[in-house]
Specification:
By secondary structure, the chain is an alpha+beta fold. The chain is built from four helices and eight strands; from the N terminus they run βαββββαββααβ. Helices cover 24% and strands 43% of the residues.
């Protein structure tokens, strides 16, 4: 499984790998940071978590061309962040304003999925996002869209969960 990221503010960090893993199922979108010049490229994608052989993967899709695809092909290493909760609390004294949040962040390597692996990943992505329609029809639609759709699997190598909650 992934290595836990060391956090500066340890009281906000989760040190239980099982809780960190479970948090990946709480959301459907992540912001992906890819290496580009002169600035990194950040893009939001829909994802679904998948555990396979005790490793965590975040499945997502895109076109088989374009900036995201080209950058991943050139250098598959990336960073990501997932906001699970965010609530700003303003104070009359600005220095006491805060954000109550829960978020994941981490790093990993992306691989391109092909064939049956791409098909299965697309089905899993749709199910994670709450698809409730006819499964046979879904599979037919996925099969027809795969020639122009690239499925990706981000292998999570390091991850951290942090949270700042209001006092009870």
């Amino acid at each position: 499984m992934f290595e836990l990221v060391t956090m500066r503010r340890k009281k906000r960090a989760c040190s239980d790998p099982k809780q960190v893993l479970a948090a990946f199922s709480e959301a459907c979108e992540l912001t992906l940071a890819l290496k580009d010049e002169p600035y990194p490229y950040a893009v939001t994608v829909n994802y679904a978590p998948m555990v396979q052989e005790d490793e965590l993967y975040l499945l997502f899709h895109g076109a088989k061309a374009g900036r995201k695809y080209d950058l991943i092909c050139h250098d598959p290493r990336c960073a990501f962040t997932i906001t699970l909760r965010s609530q700003v609390e303003l104070s009359a004294r600005p220095q006491y304003s805060t954000n109550f949040f829960k978020s994941l962040s981490g790093e990993g390597t992306i691989k391109l999925l092909e064939g049956q692996a791409a098909f299965d990943a697309c089905v899993q992505l749709m199910m994670h996002h709450g698809y409730h329609g006819d499964l046979t029809q879904l599979k037919e639609q996925i099969q027809s869209s795969l020639p122009v759709t690239q499925m990706f699997a981000l292998h999570v190598e390091r991850a951290g969960l942090k949270e700042h909650s209001p006092a009870p």
